[in-house]
Every structure is written in C-alpha cells, then in structure tokens.
Amino acid sequence: MPVFSCLLDRFSRAWVPLLLLGALSGCSSLAYYTQLAEGQLELLRRREPVAAIVADPARDPQLRQRLALAQDARSFASQALDLPDNRSYRVYAELDRPYVVWNVFAAPELSLQPLTHCFPIAGCVAYRGYYQLGGARGAAALLEQDGWDTYVAGIEAYSTLGWFDDPLLSSMLRWDDERLAALIFHELAHQRFYLADDTAFNESYASFVEHEGLRQWRAARGLAPLDGHAERMREQFTALLLASRARLQALYSGPLDEAGKRAGKAAEFERLRAEYRALRDREWHGDTRYDAWINAPLNNAKLLPFGLYDQWRPAFAALFAEVHGDWPAFYRAVAALGDLPAAQRETRLQALQAANRVVPGAVQQAK
C-alpha cells in the first residue's frame, strides 16, 4: 500500500529538506503534507543496515533471527521472483508505535463512493495517511462534523515505490514468517510496476506476486504448502462484506427517502453481523478472529478497503500461466496491460478472469 508525501525525489537525503520547501507551496494543506514529510524523514533517520544488526552479538537474539529470515526472503525476491535488487528491506527501523501510519477512509453517509485524494506519482487513492494516531483521529473527527462516515486503519508497512530505501519495520516483525515474507514480495512488486489511479489493478497484481512468491519460497525451503484455512476464512469473510456492500449500494441508489435509507442501512449492518455469526459458528467452528472488527461500529467507510486487494488476482494468475510462469515475461505483460486505456484494460482483465473461472473479489488480503 503506497503512501506518498508531496515531494518524493531521487536526490540524496541532504537535498530532501530543500525539496520539501519547494514542493509544499503547491499543496492544498501545508500541515498535512508537512507531517507526511516529517514522518518519512524520521523513518530515513532511523534506518540501520540489517547485515550489521545480524552480525552484532550484542543485539537482541530474537531481532537478529527475524531479520536474518527476512533477508532470506529478500534475497529470494530478487533472485527467484525477479523483483528489484536494491536496498529496500535490507535496512531496519525501530518504531515507538504499533503502526507506521494510520489511514483515514471516508465515504458519504448514504453512499459508498470514497473520498479520494490525489498525489504526484501515486495518483488518486481512497485514503489519507497520518504518522500519528492523533492526527488521523483529528482528521476523521473533522470529516464526521461535515457528515462523512470515517474509518481509521492502522498500517504496519508501506512502499515508496523505490523512491527511498524502504526499511523493514519493527511493526512488521510481529508477523509470522510467512506473512513477513509475503509483505516483502508484495511491496517490492509495487516497486516493479505501479499504475497511477488504479488501486484495484495495483493491489491485485501485488497480491498475486505475494501469493505465488510465497508458494515458491516455501517450496524452495522444502516446506509443505500452507493448508489454506486462514485464507479460506478471509475469502468467506470478504465475500460476506462484499454482498452486504452490494445490498447497501442498491439501497442508496433506490427510491427511498433519506430517513428510509438510514433505517435500511442500520438494518443491513444488523443483518451482516447475524450472517457473520452464523458463518463463524457453522463453518469456522467458533473461530473468533474477526469478532472485534465486526462488533465495532460499522459504517460505509469501513467497507471501502474490501474487494480491492484481490479483485483481479485470478486474472493475474491467468496472465502468469499464459507466460508459463516466466517472471520477467509476466512483468512485461503486466506493464503492457497498464499501458492500455482504462476501458480496454478492464476488458482484458475480465477475459483473463473468465479464463481462470474464479469469481472476482472473493479474496481480501489482511493489511
């Protein structure tokens, strides 16, 4: 999930403050872009070479072990998956917080159309990122005063698309080995190719690289394939949310007045919770891992992230099969897809999706 400030340039760090001053003059909110710039610069200051930490017996043994495993995955990414061979994820930054940024999503009270924000290079996205939880909550509160539904989501990692050497973060090391490796593959895929203004394309492509890369990484280490239980749960949970979102969309575009739509919205969220409980107890044998999310307040903004990260993943799987699993050829094919006009690109993706015979939008990556 890329998050960008108003500047982003490939010059050395010494030039960054001057670039910031020049770039901020064209931004719509000086305070917002200032906190983005300061947050990114703080990450740059905290970076340490991973190799030095791993080689230092005075450092925490568990940290050294996790970083060593991350470097195995990082090397595999470049050597086996043809992902960029640079310093990203070969440096480490210790954070004093559980998330690197908090993203604020917003949607109207009676619509699922997201409030979008446009940035240089990254294009338009359906969120704004904040390096401090207080800043995110404050922004959400201001939007709520204007009648927006909002949702604040903690994000454990992001990509600058190769403009900076992205560090492994302490927030990432809480994950298990598979999720840590998958994250490295996912974010490096964004560095390999990124299409401005098409979040579903970018995230579906990176999710395919993540999942196929993880499968190949486990095979190279002599490990059995994952049993898929957690992913099946994620698929079913997301399908439940997408069905609810579709019903809400029909409600909001229907003939009821605003009072009727508000009542229908409340009823739909109660239906969603009831269907979730039935799925949990019937299919998951009481597994409660999504209880906290579903039992917290629900609104339109909270549904926005779902369905983007894997909407076209089956299409990219079909594209990978077309090139017989050749990674360089796959990236060339992805770039060719990205060069198509939006309508033609979607038509091609739909054809690939149909060839794979998988219902689109059935999977959501947990990020």
From TrEMBL:
Keywords carried by this UniProt record: Aminopeptidase, Hydrolase, Protease
Protease listed as a keyword: yes
Lineage, broadest ranks: Bacteria, Pseudomonadati, Pseudomonadota, Gammaproteobacteria, Pseudomonadales
MF annotations from Gene Ontology: aminopeptidase activity
Protein name as annotated: Aminopeptidase
Pfam families attached to this UniProt entry: Aminopep
InterPro entries: Aminopept
